[in-house]
Design a protein that fits this description.
Elements lengths: L9 H23 L7 H33 L5 H34 L15 H24 L4 H17 L1 H28 L2 H12 L6 E4 L2 E2 L9 E4 L6 E2 L2 E2 L5 E5 L2 E4 L2
Length: 271
Amino acid sequence: MSASCRLTGQFGKLLQLALGVIAFISLIFKRRMESPRRPWKVWFFDTSKQGSAAVMVHVLNIGISYYMMKHDGDSEDECTWYFTNVLLDSTFGLFLMYWFIKLLTYIVQTWRLSKLRSGDYGSPPRVQTWIIQLVVYNTLIIVEKLVVSSLLLISFIQSVGHSILTPLRKLSPKLELVFALLIFPLFINIMWFWILDDFIMSAEFKHSQKRFGRRKSTKTVYSIGSERLVDSSDEEQHFVLTGPEDMTLQGTPLESIGVVARTPQSAVIDE
């Protein structure tokens, strides 16, 4: 294989930067799709766990790839080892993290460890609680990485990466580098981020988003006093009606849009 396939060369570093930026943007896009959306501070606390873990895993993958390349006796095989690392992380590693988080959730609920309740940072969100959860999450990632890396010693696992990248290697070492360091890891990182983001998110936000999803086809929220009457088709809007004399919406009688007052304390949709 050509010696130009180097993870830490100038072109490789540019690809690594692009990988991180695009993967992070995908999480911002995911937040825009949320209903209701997490506050920016809570979102940052959640995503910073994955961001710090992704940087750590990326550095570990490069270090492990370099070590395995030397151990394997092939001084030009960094790309294949890195690709194999990412492939293992996206399959067996994701499976491990799912069960690690499930186990942690069980421990937290059993022992009532409120500061370890994922995505719950208190009200208002506290930096101390976030740091504790950040350390715990990254510890789980390190354990996952140690377990997954041990699989690289299996001959069959070693051959998988070589078999997949060989056709690209014959075409162009630079094309192999782009696929091994950007295209494939980008797809895997976005999948990993989105899946684990749902695990990391607090139970309250997950439940509220599920409830909102079930109400997406209904109409706008109308209230008399503090009573909620109808849901909206997009984002919730609240119109407080103080009494029968206020039964208009922006000058339009509510009867004309299907809201009929039954009593001074309630209103319903007239289908």
